[in-house]
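Need the bound structure for adenosine monophosphate, inputs here:
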Amino acid sequence: MDDYDHESISIAEALQRIESDLTPITDSVQVTIHNALGQVLAQDVCSPMNVPNFPSSAMDGYALRHSDVSPVARLRVVGTAFAGKPYAHAIHAGECLRIFTGAMLPEGADSVMMQEYVHTEGDAIQLTAPCTAGQYVVRVGENVQVGQKILSAGKRLLPADLGLLAALGINEIAVKRRLRVAFFSTGDELCTVGQVPKAGQIYDSNRHSLAGLLKRLEMDGLDMGIIPDDPIAVEQAFLRAAQDCDAIITSGGVSVGDADFVTKILRKIGHIHFWKIAMKPGRPLTFGKIQAVAFFGLSGNPVSMMSTFYQFVQPALRYLQGQQKVQPLRFQVPCLSLLKKLQGRVEFQRGILTPDAQGQLSVRSTGQQGASMLSSMSQANCFIILPIECSEIAVGEKVWVEPFEGLI
Ligand code: AMP
Ligand code: MG
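Answer from helper R.:
Posting the output first, comments after.
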């Protein structure tokens, strides 16, 4: 028994096809860095200044002129400089300045002697150790030079980036506008949480997972509710969503059952690609366009929905917004569970990655892997990725993992 399907395509192939059909948005907006977390830079950022932009002391000690240094020299202490409180004058031959870490070096000084290697005598000092020219001076532009490229267009701004921008005196930047993503659930069996389900109904979980995923991507999700399995309702909902958003995501109704209208309607009012992907869960993936709006039709099974979102929709939306490509973080660790699968598809099982007492990482399975078992997704913190040809992983064998990195 195997699970090969010769009509199916690889994940990489599907992603490439999706990207070749999408054009990244170009619109940008100005925001202050206070509002920029998670936004995507629309332009390269070059530093308007040197960092630091004045020379300072790296130690508590004395700022002096290296040309004055000799084993017998006595240097007169003419004042003190603290961090943020510079000494207002230059120092001249035979003079030095008491200085503390971070304080601006006075004009005329070029080196700093640590206080531990200085002998004080009234208002003068003598050095008790050799002094190298320029020692313990933090130079102008040591961290960043004026004009240097600091961040590239397409970078998604994280907390360190916000600090970096502030350190350069940049308070406002151009970012890509937020993507607007409409999403629906489809199915007569679905009931919105908070309402009373009729006989045979289940609660709609997918819209809530999708809302969370989009929020974490800092995109504007438009929750368009549940559409019944009815072709007219599906068509109206799609046309409405296409009016003012960049992408539409649906879950459910993409199979070939009598009540599956998503693909039929998409074929009627837009363009459609329907691919079987050599992955589990989430073999069928419907991708298409309604006018210029990207359309992703995901399986209704909650785990398939989230896995395909993670592997396809997430990179596609990032691409559409003009984000730089980020290579998914994947690495190998020993697996503490016996895993079985059929050959023929890449499998994304749910795993729990934990360090042992020595800090060595290993992964174990969350247990049952059914496509509807959303609790497995909730317990997991990573995918365990089992290649197409793999059929079994023995306990202790290494497997590839991909941490959810805060998205799921
Ligand atoms: P479908 O993709 O419509 O064939 O649905 C596959 C399975 O997922 C069925 O058992 C559905 O009842 C279930 N399902 C579909 N949509 C949702 C949803 N929004 N929330 C939870 N389960 C769903
Ligand atoms: Mg359905």
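Comments: The chain has a mean pLDDT of 94. The CA atoms of residues 26 and 306 lie 28 Å apart.
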